[in-house]
Amino acid sequence: MLPNFLIVGAEKAGTTTLASILAQHPDVFMCEPKEPRYFSHPSRGRGLAWYASLFESAEGKKAVGEASTAYTWHPHIADVPQRIHETLGDIRYIYMVRDPVERLISHYRHAVYYRWIPEGLSLDEAVERCPALFDCGRYAHQVEQYRAVSAWSRWKIIALEDLLRNPEKVQRELCSFLSIGDHLTPLPHENAGDDLFALPEPLRGLRNLQALIPGRIGNMVRRKLKQLWGRRIEAPELDPAERDSWRDRYRAEVERLSARAGRDFAEFWWGEGHTEG
Questions:
Q1: Cβ–Cβ under 8 Å, residues 227 and 56
Q2: CA 177 to CA 171: how far, in whole Å?
Q3: Contacts 24+ apart (CB under 8 A), 43-46
Q4: What residue ranges are annotated as transmembrane (predicted)?
Q5: 3-state DSSP call for residue 173?
Q6: What angle (nearest 5°) sits at the alpha carbon of residue 80, between those of residues 263 and 56?
Q7: pLDDT tens-digit profile of 5-29?
Q8: 53 occurs within a structural domain
Q9: Residues 6+ apart with CB under 8 A from 141
Q10: 3 state DSSP class of 23
Q11: Which of 16, 28, 165, 257 places its Cα 20 to 30 Å from the Cα of 202?
């Protein structure tokens, strides 16, 4: 068995939370690991049999999926839509978005945590060193890479802010999109992706502890290590002028996404009455 839907991103936009919610639905199967990255990293040499084995327990489930955010890392990872279509055909896609400036800040902290960039850089310096930090928030550009292989009707765009403010409404919309029965699940209490801590050098290798000890036990051990020895990775602070500048850099992308989705995301994220963070 293979997936009939994918959560393809965006990075640092709530995909872990959404995958966790869907995994608790009786009609849904979400694979472990959450992000197999089969279509983004084919050079790893893992074949289709390996990928299919991740879903061998999905028998009887109406919606079978995975959630690899690397599927929307264009242009840094290319040809993903074609590989997906060749293997899975005309599936459904779920794409999580959030205020792109807030997403960028979260991705910055993620990059420091994984040592893609050194700590202490400004946001401009970080993007210069690692352009993917900015490009993963080019939502319209990322979705447009799939135009040749997927109709817009096969896509569901979900704003993280909506999921956090009105989870029941979003879940009902998702159930309708995936053609499964309504089943509402409370939001997880924490999202580790936005709560990152730098560990001392001797403990750096334990960032991948979940791969060695999967599930709740691994998560508990990691949390305890953070409490004992961790130092929170701080996000760069933006003054109002800097924040407006970053919004302007994303504005054309947000307008294109708005036109495609039929919703004014610029007003939703940056209009009067919105809240920062």
A1: no
A2: 10
A3: none
A4: none
A5: helix
A6: 100
A7: 999 999 999 999 999 999 999 999 9
A8: yes
A9: 74, 135, 253
A10: helix
A11: 16
Q: Sheet containing 155-159: give its strands across.
A: 28-30, 63-67, 5-7, 92-97, 155-159
Q: How many CB atoms lie within 10 A of CB 239?
A: 8
Interval 57-105: pLDDT, tens: 999 999 999 999 999 999 999 999 999 999 999 999 999 999 999 999 9
Q: What are phi and psi of 179, to 5 degrees?
A: 60, 50
* Residue 168 belongs to domain with CATH number: 3.40.50.300
Residue 26's domain comprises 5-190+250-270
Rounded to whole angstroms, the Cα distance separating 76 from 78 reads 6
| 71 burial level (CB within 10 Å; 0-12, 13-18, 19+) | buried
Q: How confident is the model at residue 42 (pLDDT cuts 50, 70, 90)?
A: confident
Residue 243 covered by a domain: no
Q: Is 229 a member of any domain?
A: no
